[in-house]
Amino acid sequence: MSLLGPCRCDAILDGAEPQDGPSLMERLDPRTRVILAVLFALVVVTVDALAALALALGVAVLAAALARLPLGLTLRRLLALEGFMVAVLLLLPFTVEGRVVAEPLGFAASAEGLRQACVIALRANAVAVALLALLGSMDVVRLGRALSRLGAPRRLVHLFLFTIRYIDVLDREYRRLRLAMRARAFRPAAGLHCWRSVGYLFGMLMVRSLERAERIDAAMRCRGFTGQFPSLEDDDIRPPGALDWGLGAVSAVMLALVVGLGV
Amino acid sequence: MAHIPDGVLSNPVLVAGAIVSTVGVAFGLKGLDPVRVPRVAVLSAVLFVASLIHLPAGLASVHLLLGGLAGIVLGWSVFPAMLVALVLQAVLFGFGGLVVLGVNTMDMAVPALLAGLLFRLAWRDGSPRRAAILGGLAGGGGVLLTAVMVACMLGLSGREFETAARLVVVAHVPVMAVEAVFTAAAVSLLARVKPEMLARAS
Protein backbone atom coordinates (compact mmCIF):
# COMPACT_ATOMS: atom_id res chain seq x y z
CA MET A 1 0.00 0.00 0.00
CA SER A 2 2.01 2.92 -1.23
CA LEU A 3 1.01 6.35 -0.13
CA LEU A 4 0.62 7.63 -3.64
CA GLY A 5 -1.06 4.58 -5.06
CA PRO A 6 0.18 2.97 -8.23
CA CYS A 7 2.03 6.03 -9.45
CA ARG A 8 5.48 6.83 -8.19
CA CYS A 9 5.87 10.03 -6.27
CA ASP A 10 8.90 11.07 -8.28
CA ALA A 11 6.91 10.72 -11.46
CA ILE A 12 4.24 13.02 -10.08
CA LEU A 13 6.65 15.64 -8.93
CA ASP A 14 8.81 15.68 -12.03
CA GLY A 15 5.92 15.84 -14.45
CA ALA A 16 5.71 13.72 -17.58
CA GLU A 17 9.02 12.62 -19.01
CA PRO A 18 9.42 13.97 -22.53
CA GLN A 19 10.00 11.13 -24.96
CA ASP A 20 11.37 12.91 -27.98
CA GLY A 21 11.86 16.59 -27.40
CA PRO A 22 9.45 18.74 -25.43
CA SER A 23 5.80 18.41 -26.44
CA LEU A 24 3.98 21.43 -27.82
CA MET A 25 2.31 21.78 -24.43
CA GLU A 26 5.66 21.93 -22.66
CA ARG A 27 6.88 24.72 -24.89
CA LEU A 28 3.95 26.88 -23.79
CA ASP A 29 4.47 29.36 -21.02
CA PRO A 30 3.06 27.91 -17.76
CA ARG A 31 1.02 31.08 -17.30
CA THR A 32 -0.68 30.57 -20.65
CA ARG A 33 -1.62 27.08 -19.57
CA VAL A 34 -3.10 28.25 -16.27
CA ILE A 35 -5.16 30.96 -17.96
CA LEU A 36 -6.38 28.56 -20.64
CA ALA A 37 -7.40 26.00 -18.03
CA VAL A 38 -9.41 28.56 -16.05
CA LEU A 39 -11.10 29.95 -19.17
CA PHE A 40 -11.91 26.48 -20.42
CA ALA A 41 -13.49 25.44 -17.10
CA LEU A 42 -15.55 28.63 -16.93
CA VAL A 43 -16.84 28.20 -20.49
CA VAL A 44 -17.67 24.53 -19.99
CA VAL A 45 -19.59 25.20 -16.80
CA THR A 46 -21.57 28.00 -18.45
CA VAL A 47 -22.71 26.36 -21.70
CA ASP A 48 -25.55 23.88 -21.68
CA ALA A 49 -26.00 22.52 -25.23
CA LEU A 50 -24.91 18.92 -25.77
CA ALA A 51 -23.19 19.71 -29.08
CA ALA A 52 -21.14 22.49 -27.48
CA LEU A 53 -20.10 20.25 -24.60
CA ALA A 54 -19.16 17.44 -26.96
CA LEU A 55 -16.99 19.90 -28.87
CA ALA A 56 -15.44 21.05 -25.60
CA LEU A 57 -14.60 17.46 -24.68
CA GLY A 58 -13.04 17.08 -28.13
CA VAL A 59 -10.91 20.18 -27.55
CA ALA A 60 -9.82 18.79 -24.18
CA VAL A 61 -8.86 15.46 -25.74
CA LEU A 62 -6.90 17.33 -28.40
CA ALA A 63 -5.04 19.19 -25.67
CA ALA A 64 -4.34 15.86 -23.96
CA ALA A 65 -2.89 14.55 -27.22
CA LEU A 66 -0.73 17.68 -27.52
CA ALA A 67 0.50 17.15 -23.97
CA ARG A 68 1.21 13.46 -24.75
CA LEU A 69 -0.68 12.26 -21.70
CA PRO A 70 -0.24 8.52 -21.12
CA LEU A 71 -3.50 6.95 -22.28
CA GLY A 72 -3.86 4.16 -19.72
CA LEU A 73 -3.16 6.30 -16.67
CA THR A 74 -5.46 9.07 -17.86
CA LEU A 75 -8.30 6.63 -18.47
CA ARG A 76 -7.81 5.14 -15.00
CA ARG A 77 -8.02 8.59 -13.42
CA LEU A 78 -11.19 9.39 -15.36
CA LEU A 79 -12.64 6.09 -14.21
CA ALA A 80 -12.04 7.12 -10.60
CA LEU A 81 -13.93 10.34 -11.32
CA GLU A 82 -16.77 8.36 -12.91
CA GLY A 83 -16.93 6.18 -9.82
CA PHE A 84 -17.65 9.25 -7.77
CA MET A 85 -20.37 10.58 -10.06
CA VAL A 86 -22.04 7.29 -10.86
CA ALA A 87 -24.68 7.61 -8.16
CA VAL A 88 -25.68 11.11 -9.26
CA LEU A 89 -25.71 10.18 -12.95
CA LEU A 90 -27.72 6.99 -12.53
CA LEU A 91 -30.31 8.65 -10.34
CA LEU A 92 -30.91 11.69 -12.54
CA PRO A 93 -33.14 10.03 -15.19
CA PHE A 94 -35.46 8.93 -12.39
CA THR A 95 -35.51 12.10 -10.32
CA VAL A 96 -35.99 14.66 -13.11
CA GLU A 97 -39.59 14.96 -14.18
CA GLY A 98 -40.41 14.94 -17.88
CA ARG A 99 -41.31 12.78 -20.84
CA VAL A 100 -40.98 9.12 -19.87
CA VAL A 101 -38.79 7.12 -22.24
CA ALA A 102 -38.32 3.87 -20.33
CA GLU A 103 -39.60 2.18 -17.20
CA PRO A 104 -37.04 -0.29 -15.88
CA LEU A 105 -38.41 -2.11 -12.81
CA GLY A 106 -41.39 0.21 -12.73
CA PHE A 107 -39.40 3.43 -12.20
CA ALA A 108 -40.01 6.06 -14.85
CA ALA A 109 -36.89 7.41 -16.58
CA SER A 110 -37.32 10.79 -18.24
CA ALA A 111 -35.67 12.10 -21.37
CA GLU A 112 -34.86 15.37 -19.60
CA GLY A 113 -33.10 13.47 -16.84
CA LEU A 114 -31.06 11.46 -19.31
CA ARG A 115 -30.07 14.66 -21.05
CA GLN A 116 -28.99 16.28 -17.81
CA ALA A 117 -26.95 13.22 -16.87
CA CYS A 118 -25.19 13.48 -20.24
CA VAL A 119 -24.53 17.20 -19.70
CA ILE A 120 -22.96 16.57 -16.30
CA ALA A 121 -20.86 13.65 -17.51
CA LEU A 122 -19.58 15.66 -20.50
CA ARG A 123 -18.78 18.72 -18.41
CA ALA A 124 -16.99 16.84 -15.63
CA ASN A 125 -14.91 14.81 -18.05
CA ALA A 126 -14.06 17.75 -20.28
CA VAL A 127 -12.77 19.79 -17.34
CA ALA A 128 -10.90 16.84 -15.85
CA VAL A 129 -9.16 16.00 -19.15
CA ALA A 130 -8.32 19.66 -19.78
CA LEU A 131 -6.89 20.04 -16.27
CA LEU A 132 -4.75 16.93 -16.61
CA ALA A 133 -3.57 18.02 -20.06
CA LEU A 134 -2.87 21.68 -19.34
CA LEU A 135 -1.72 21.59 -15.73
CA GLY A 136 -1.23 17.97 -14.70
CA SER A 137 1.47 17.45 -17.32
CA MET A 138 3.46 20.35 -15.90
CA ASP A 139 6.10 20.16 -13.20
CA VAL A 140 4.09 21.24 -10.13
CA VAL A 141 6.85 23.52 -8.95
CA ARG A 142 6.61 25.44 -12.23
CA LEU A 143 2.86 25.57 -11.71
CA GLY A 144 3.49 27.17 -8.32
CA ARG A 145 5.74 29.82 -9.85
CA ALA A 146 3.25 30.49 -12.62
CA LEU A 147 0.50 31.02 -10.05
CA SER A 148 2.77 33.42 -8.22
CA ARG A 149 3.42 35.45 -11.40
CA LEU A 150 -0.30 35.54 -12.05
CA GLY A 151 -0.81 37.30 -8.76
CA ALA A 152 -1.58 34.50 -6.30
CA PRO A 153 -0.77 35.58 -2.72
CA ARG A 154 2.86 34.89 -1.90
CA ARG A 155 2.13 32.96 1.26
CA LEU A 156 -0.29 30.72 -0.59
CA VAL A 157 2.36 29.97 -3.21
CA HIS A 158 4.88 29.21 -0.47
CA LEU A 159 2.41 26.87 1.12
CA PHE A 160 1.87 25.25 -2.26
CA LEU A 161 5.60 24.71 -2.85
CA PHE A 162 6.24 23.42 0.66
CA THR A 163 3.28 21.05 0.33
CA ILE A 164 4.73 19.55 -2.83
CA ARG A 165 7.96 18.98 -0.99
CA TYR A 166 6.27 17.40 2.03
CA ILE A 167 4.22 14.99 -0.04
CA ASP A 168 7.50 13.39 -0.98
CA VAL A 169 8.84 13.54 2.58
CA LEU A 170 5.64 12.01 3.92
CA ASP A 171 5.75 9.28 1.35
CA ARG A 172 9.21 8.16 2.39
CA GLU A 173 8.44 8.45 6.09
CA TYR A 174 5.20 6.53 5.57
CA ARG A 175 6.95 3.66 3.86
CA ARG A 176 9.47 3.44 6.67
CA LEU A 177 6.77 3.34 9.35
CA ARG A 178 4.65 0.87 7.40
CA LEU A 179 7.63 -1.41 7.04
CA ALA A 180 8.15 -1.27 10.79
CA MET A 181 4.49 -2.13 11.32
CA ARG A 182 4.68 -5.00 8.87
CA ALA A 183 7.72 -6.33 10.63
CA ARG A 184 5.48 -6.53 13.71
CA ALA A 185 2.85 -8.48 11.74
CA PHE A 186 0.33 -5.66 11.27
CA ARG A 187 -2.23 -6.34 8.62
CA PRO A 188 -5.00 -3.91 7.65
CA ALA A 189 -8.42 -5.35 8.46
CA ALA A 190 -11.75 -3.78 9.38
CA GLY A 191 -11.74 -3.13 13.09
CA LEU A 192 -10.81 -0.81 15.90
CA HIS A 193 -7.28 -2.11 16.09
CA CYS A 194 -6.48 -1.31 12.48
CA TRP A 195 -8.12 2.11 12.49
CA ARG A 196 -6.40 3.07 15.74
CA SER A 197 -3.04 1.82 14.50
CA VAL A 198 -3.33 3.88 11.33
CA GLY A 199 -4.28 6.84 13.53
CA TYR A 200 -1.05 6.39 15.50
CA LEU A 201 0.80 5.94 12.23
CA PHE A 202 -0.45 9.28 10.92
CA GLY A 203 0.11 11.00 14.25
CA MET A 204 3.72 9.81 14.22
CA LEU A 205 4.02 10.72 10.54
CA MET A 206 2.99 14.29 11.34
CA VAL A 207 5.31 14.55 14.32
CA ARG A 208 8.29 13.27 12.36
CA SER A 209 7.58 15.40 9.30
CA LEU A 210 7.13 18.46 11.43
CA GLU A 211 10.33 17.94 13.37
CA ARG A 212 12.07 17.55 10.07
CA ALA A 213 10.41 20.74 8.84
CA GLU A 214 11.67 22.57 11.90
CA ARG A 215 15.23 21.38 11.28
CA ILE A 216 15.01 22.44 7.66
CA ASP A 217 13.58 25.80 8.65
CA ALA A 218 16.45 26.36 11.07
CA ALA A 219 18.99 25.38 8.41
CA MET A 220 17.38 27.70 5.88
CA ARG A 221 17.49 30.59 8.33
CA CYS A 222 21.18 29.91 8.95
CA ARG A 223 21.71 30.37 5.23
CA GLY A 224 19.83 33.63 5.12
CA PHE A 225 16.39 32.56 3.93
CA THR A 226 14.25 35.67 3.84
CA GLY A 227 10.96 34.22 2.73
CA GLN A 228 11.70 34.19 -1.01
CA PHE A 229 12.62 31.21 -3.11
CA PRO A 230 15.32 32.33 -5.50
CA SER A 231 15.52 30.03 -8.50
CA LEU A 232 18.55 29.40 -10.68
CA GLU A 233 16.54 28.08 -13.61
CA ASP A 234 13.76 30.58 -13.62
CA ASP A 235 13.33 31.08 -17.31
CA ASP A 236 9.59 31.62 -17.13
CA ILE A 237 9.95 35.35 -16.69
CA ARG A 238 10.16 36.02 -20.44
CA PRO A 239 7.11 37.62 -21.98
CA PRO A 240 4.75 35.20 -23.74
CA GLY A 241 6.17 34.14 -27.10
CA ALA A 242 4.65 33.64 -30.54
CA LEU A 243 3.58 30.12 -29.59
CA ASP A 244 1.64 31.43 -26.58
CA TRP A 245 -0.14 34.08 -28.62
CA GLY A 246 -0.79 31.63 -31.46
CA LEU A 247 -2.19 28.87 -29.31
CA GLY A 248 -4.02 31.43 -27.21
CA ALA A 249 -5.73 32.73 -30.34
CA VAL A 250 -6.63 29.21 -31.54
CA SER A 251 -8.02 28.37 -28.11
CA ALA A 252 -9.99 31.60 -28.00
CA VAL A 253 -11.59 30.76 -31.35
CA MET A 254 -12.44 27.26 -30.16
CA LEU A 255 -13.92 28.50 -26.90
CA ALA A 256 -15.92 31.11 -28.83
CA LEU A 257 -17.21 28.28 -31.02
CA VAL A 258 -18.20 26.29 -27.92
CA VAL A 259 -20.01 29.32 -26.51
CA GLY A 260 -21.62 30.03 -29.88
CA LEU A 261 -22.94 26.48 -30.11
CA GLY A 262 -24.10 26.52 -26.53
CA VAL A 263 -26.04 29.77 -26.26
CA MET B 1 -12.00 14.73 0.39
CA ALA B 2 -15.23 16.04 -0.89
CA HIS B 3 -14.71 15.95 -4.62
CA ILE B 4 -17.76 17.34 -6.30
CA PRO B 5 -16.76 17.46 -9.99
CA ASP B 6 -17.34 20.43 -12.25
CA GLY B 7 -20.66 20.68 -14.00
CA VAL B 8 -22.97 19.42 -11.26
CA LEU B 9 -23.72 22.42 -9.09
CA SER B 10 -25.75 25.46 -10.05
CA ASN B 11 -24.14 28.86 -10.51
CA PRO B 12 -25.45 30.55 -7.32
CA VAL B 13 -24.08 27.68 -5.23
CA LEU B 14 -20.72 27.93 -7.01
CA VAL B 15 -20.51 31.68 -6.40
CA ALA B 16 -21.49 31.36 -2.74
CA GLY B 17 -18.87 28.67 -2.18
CA ALA B 18 -16.21 30.75 -3.91
CA ILE B 19 -17.00 33.77 -1.74
CA VAL B 20 -16.94 31.82 1.54
CA SER B 21 -13.69 30.11 0.61
CA THR B 22 -12.02 33.31 -0.57
CA VAL B 23 -12.82 35.00 2.71
CA GLY B 24 -11.67 31.95 4.67
CA VAL B 25 -8.43 31.61 2.72
CA ALA B 26 -7.69 35.34 3.00
CA PHE B 27 -8.29 35.22 6.74
CA GLY B 28 -6.22 32.07 7.12
CA LEU B 29 -3.31 33.55 5.15
CA LYS B 30 -3.44 36.80 7.06
CA GLY B 31 -2.94 35.02 10.36
CA LEU B 32 -0.32 32.69 8.93
CA ASP B 33 3.06 33.46 10.43
CA PRO B 34 5.77 32.60 7.82
CA VAL B 35 7.42 30.42 10.48
CA ARG B 36 4.32 28.26 10.57
CA VAL B 37 4.16 27.70 6.81
CA PRO B 38 6.05 24.36 7.03
CA ARG B 39 3.63 23.07 9.66
CA VAL B 40 0.63 23.99 7.55
CA ALA B 41 2.31 22.44 4.50
CA VAL B 42 2.79 19.16 6.37
CA LEU B 43 -0.94 19.10 7.01
CA SER B 44 -1.74 20.01 3.39
CA ALA B 45 0.40 17.09 2.31
CA VAL B 46 -1.38 14.83 4.79
CA LEU B 47 -4.75 16.01 3.46
CA PHE B 48 -3.57 15.40 -0.09
CA VAL B 49 -2.56 11.82 0.59
CA ALA B 50 -5.50 11.07 2.90
CA SER B 51 -7.82 10.30 0.03
CA LEU B 52 -5.31 7.89 -1.46
CA ILE B 53 -5.23 5.68 1.61
CA HIS B 54 -8.07 3.21 1.76
CA LEU B 55 -8.93 1.51 5.01
CA PRO B 56 -11.06 -1.60 5.25
CA ALA B 57 -14.46 -1.00 6.91
CA GLY B 58 -16.78 -3.97 6.79
CA LEU B 59 -17.45 -4.97 3.20
CA ALA B 60 -16.26 -1.77 1.59
CA SER B 61 -13.12 0.27 1.94
CA VAL B 62 -13.28 3.94 2.78
CA HIS B 63 -10.84 6.75 2.40
CA LEU B 64 -10.32 9.28 5.12
CA LEU B 65 -11.11 13.00 4.93
CA LEU B 66 -9.00 14.12 7.91
CA GLY B 67 -10.85 17.43 8.22
CA GLY B 68 -11.19 17.13 12.00
CA LEU B 69 -7.50 16.40 12.51
CA ALA B 70 -6.46 19.26 10.22
CA GLY B 71 -8.80 21.69 11.98
CA ILE B 72 -7.45 20.72 15.41
CA VAL B 73 -3.85 21.25 14.39
CA LEU B 74 -4.30 24.26 12.09
CA GLY B 75 -7.19 26.47 13.15
CA TRP B 76 -7.93 29.08 10.50
CA SER B 77 -4.96 28.01 8.37
CA VAL B 78 -7.03 24.97 7.47
CA PHE B 79 -8.62 27.04 4.66
CA PRO B 80 -5.43 27.62 2.64
CA ALA B 81 -4.21 24.11 3.52
CA MET B 82 -7.39 22.58 2.16
CA LEU B 83 -7.29 24.76 -0.96
CA VAL B 84 -3.74 23.69 -1.77
CA ALA B 85 -4.53 20.01 -1.22
CA LEU B 86 -7.62 20.25 -3.44
CA VAL B 87 -5.77 22.12 -6.20
CA LEU B 88 -3.08 19.45 -6.25
CA GLN B 89 -5.64 16.66 -6.33
CA ALA B 90 -7.56 18.32 -9.16
CA VAL B 91 -4.44 19.02 -11.20
CA LEU B 92 -2.58 15.75 -10.63
CA PHE B 93 -5.43 13.25 -10.40
CA GLY B 94 -8.43 14.98 -11.95
CA PHE B 95 -10.38 14.61 -8.66
CA GLY B 96 -12.88 17.44 -8.38
CA GLY B 97 -12.82 20.39 -10.73
CA LEU B 98 -11.64 23.94 -11.09
CA VAL B 99 -14.76 26.05 -10.83
CA VAL B 100 -16.04 23.98 -7.88
CA LEU B 101 -12.82 24.52 -5.92
CA GLY B 102 -14.54 27.15 -3.79
CA VAL B 103 -17.42 24.89 -2.84
CA ASN B 104 -15.16 21.89 -2.20
CA THR B 105 -12.81 23.96 -0.06
CA MET B 106 -15.74 25.31 1.92
CA ASP B 107 -17.28 21.85 2.41
CA MET B 108 -14.05 20.56 3.86
CA ALA B 109 -12.68 23.60 5.69
CA VAL B 110 -15.75 24.90 7.51
CA PRO B 111 -16.39 21.65 9.40
CA ALA B 112 -12.67 21.32 10.08
CA LEU B 113 -12.51 24.85 11.47
CA LEU B 114 -15.52 24.25 13.73
CA ALA B 115 -14.14 20.92 14.94
CA GLY B 116 -10.83 22.59 15.75
CA LEU B 117 -12.43 25.51 17.59
CA LEU B 118 -14.63 23.24 19.71
CA PHE B 119 -11.69 20.96 20.44
CA ARG B 120 -9.60 23.83 21.74
CA LEU B 121 -12.48 25.18 23.80
CA ALA B 122 -13.06 21.83 25.46
CA TRP B 123 -9.46 20.61 25.81
CA ARG B 124 -8.07 22.67 28.62
CA ASP B 125 -6.42 20.28 31.03
CA GLY B 126 -3.99 18.77 28.53
CA SER B 127 -4.77 15.14 29.31
CA PRO B 128 -4.21 12.72 26.40
CA ARG B 129 -7.28 10.67 27.32
CA ARG B 130 -9.55 13.67 27.08
CA ALA B 131 -7.80 14.69 23.86
CA ALA B 132 -8.58 11.26 22.42
CA ILE B 133 -12.29 11.51 23.25
CA LEU B 134 -12.58 15.05 21.93
CA GLY B 135 -10.49 14.15 18.89
CA GLY B 136 -12.83 11.27 18.11
CA LEU B 137 -15.82 13.60 18.33
CA ALA B 138 -14.08 16.18 16.17
CA GLY B 139 -13.09 13.56 13.57
CA GLY B 140 -16.52 11.94 13.35
CA GLY B 141 -18.39 15.23 13.59
CA GLY B 142 -16.19 16.76 10.90
CA VAL B 143 -17.04 13.98 8.47
CA LEU B 144 -20.74 14.23 9.28
CA LEU B 145 -20.81 17.97 8.75
CA THR B 146 -18.84 17.70 5.51
CA ALA B 147 -21.27 15.08 4.21
CA VAL B 148 -24.24 17.23 5.20
CA MET B 149 -22.70 20.26 3.51
CA VAL B 150 -22.01 18.32 0.30
CA ALA B 151 -25.59 17.09 0.42
CA CYS B 152 -26.88 20.63 0.93
CA MET B 153 -24.85 21.95 -2.01
CA LEU B 154 -26.34 19.22 -4.20
CA GLY B 155 -29.84 19.80 -2.84
CA LEU B 156 -29.59 23.55 -3.34
CA SER B 157 -28.48 23.05 -6.93
CA GLY B 158 -31.72 21.36 -7.90
CA ARG B 159 -34.55 19.21 -6.55
CA GLU B 160 -33.46 16.37 -8.78
CA PHE B 161 -30.29 15.89 -6.72
CA GLU B 162 -32.11 15.32 -3.42
CA THR B 163 -31.94 11.52 -3.63
CA ALA B 164 -28.26 11.62 -4.45
CA ALA B 165 -27.74 14.05 -1.59
CA ARG B 166 -29.28 11.60 0.87
CA LEU B 167 -27.07 8.86 -0.52
CA VAL B 168 -23.99 10.99 0.10
CA VAL B 169 -24.83 11.29 3.79
CA VAL B 170 -25.58 7.57 4.16
CA ALA B 171 -22.37 6.65 2.35
CA HIS B 172 -20.37 8.70 4.83
CA VAL B 173 -21.61 6.88 7.94
CA PRO B 174 -18.89 4.19 7.82
CA VAL B 175 -16.29 6.88 7.09
CA MET B 176 -17.48 8.68 10.21
CA ALA B 177 -16.88 5.63 12.40
CA VAL B 178 -13.42 4.96 10.96
CA GLU B 179 -12.39 8.57 11.09
CA ALA B 180 -13.55 9.01 14.69
CA VAL B 181 -11.35 6.13 15.87
CA PHE B 182 -8.50 7.27 13.62
CA THR B 183 -8.58 10.88 14.81
CA ALA B 184 -8.88 9.84 18.45
CA ALA B 185 -5.70 7.79 18.12
CA ALA B 186 -3.80 10.43 16.14
CA VAL B 187 -4.76 13.25 18.50
CA SER B 188 -3.97 11.29 21.67
CA LEU B 189 -0.57 10.49 20.22
CA LEU B 190 0.04 14.15 19.42
CA ALA B 191 -1.10 15.11 22.94
CA ARG B 192 1.48 12.76 24.40
CA VAL B 193 4.39 13.29 22.01
CA LYS B 194 4.06 16.88 20.80
CA PRO B 195 1.31 18.67 22.71
CA GLU B 196 2.38 22.09 21.41
CA MET B 197 1.07 21.02 18.02
CA LEU B 198 -2.44 20.95 19.43
CA ALA B 199 -2.23 23.91 21.74
CA ARG B 200 -0.67 26.64 19.65
CA ALA B 201 -2.91 26.70 16.60
CA SER B 202 -3.99 30.25 15.82
Automatic annotation (TrEMBL), chain A:
The chain crosses the membrane at residues 34-66, 78-94, 114-135. The gene is cbiQ. It is found in: Cell membrane. Belongs to the CbiQ family. This is Cobalt ECF transporter T component CbiQ. Pfam families: CbiQ. Keywords: Cell membrane, Membrane, Transmembrane, Transmembrane helix. It comes from Paramagnetospirillum kuznetsovii. PANTHER family: SLL0384 PROTEIN. GO terms for cellular component: ATP-binding cassette (ABC) transporter complex. It comes from the Bacteria. It is a multi-pass membrane protein. One of its GO terms (biological process) is cobalt ion transport. Its main location: membrane.
From TrEMBL, chain B:
It is found in: Cell membrane. The keyword Transmembrane applies. Keywords: Cell membrane, Membrane, Transmembrane, Transmembrane helix, Transport. Its main location: membrane. The keyword Transmembrane helix applies. GO terms for cellular component: plasma membrane. It comes from the Bacteria. InterPro entries: CbiM/NikMN (IPR002751). GO terms for biological process: transition metal ion transport. It is a multi-pass membrane protein. The chain crosses the membrane at residues 12-29, 41-66, 73-92, 98-119, 131-156, 168-191. PANTHER family: METAL TRANSPORT PROTEIN HI_1621-RELATED. This is Cobalamin biosynthesis protein CbiM. It comes from Paramagnetospirillum kuznetsovii. The lineage of its organism: Bacteria, Pseudomonadati, Pseudomonadota, Alphaproteobacteria, Rhodospirillales.
